[in-house]
Specification:
One of its GO terms (biological process) is proteolysis. This protein is mainly β and 310 residues long. It contains four helices and 22 strands. The chain has an eight-stranded mixed sheet with strand order 7-6-21-22-8-9-12-20, with no helix packed on it. Strands 1, 2, 3, 4 and 5 form a five-stranded antiparallel sheet that branches. Strands 11-10-15-16 form a four-stranded antiparallel sheet, with helices on one face.
Amino acid sequence: MQPTPIFDPTQSSSFSKLPCSSNLCKALTDSNCNDGCGYLYGYGDHSTTQGVMASETFTFDQVSVPNIGFGCGNDNQGIGLDQSAGLVGLGRGPLSIVSQLHTGKYSYCLTSLGDSKTGSVLFGSLASSVNTNGVPVTTPLIKNPSPYKQSFYYLSLEGITVGTTRLPIPKSTFAIKDDGSGGVIIDSGATVAHLEDTAFKLVTKAFKEQINLPVAEGNPTELDLCFSLPSGTSDISVPPLLFHFNGADLDLPRENYMFPDPDRGLMCLAMRGSSNGMSIIGNFQQQNTLVLHDLDKQTLSFTATKCDQL
């Protein structure tokens, strides 16, 4: 159940349904014209929302922006929409808030899993004006040739190191194929990382070899690799994990790739294999990291940051 008050469009003087002739309605992949621009939209976690496209005035801190298009849902289903008032689209497509604000930059900083403090999303000049003590690393954003995948942020992942061993993963493993399949995206809406299957098998093999714990049998979680923790043990040594992007090495802190499950006596790798060839850097891997999208320069930067202190 949504904990915040449900939006009532009848109480708003600036709410307006969008006609089917609007550009935003035409950008939908599944719409109808029974009563304005009706829509049905699905997300990667299998959440769905159904309702009508509308425009409204959105207020960000002290700034109000009129005529922002959004989906006013009357039937929202799934985990992603269960405890929230909605989802904010940050992709490259025309429906996203980023595209509608015509901002050249935006950044976000996600707090730790379970942290009571909220993270931040910053648009425009504010996106890169955050004072952090970390040193940013920057990698180019790359384009997918497929017209159906233009909304994703693709990165050039060139390799992975577990411990001190750079894994024998060919660069072509993470490349975008001619038909638009494959590649690596960064997604604030996905929870854990998904790696192309052959690369994932090499990663899990390396962790099994370098962590001196038994692999959990009959794993009750949705994660593919968990280790059984000895009773009363909390401080387990785990090897470092680095993602080697074009021009940027992302050194992940332990809490961004190892998920402790003390109630079950487990420690799990917060990654899964990807059978469709596409790899995803999820929000678990982005905790306490300022992630800056510079759409003018077509770059993405990572800066280690205590997001609860911004």
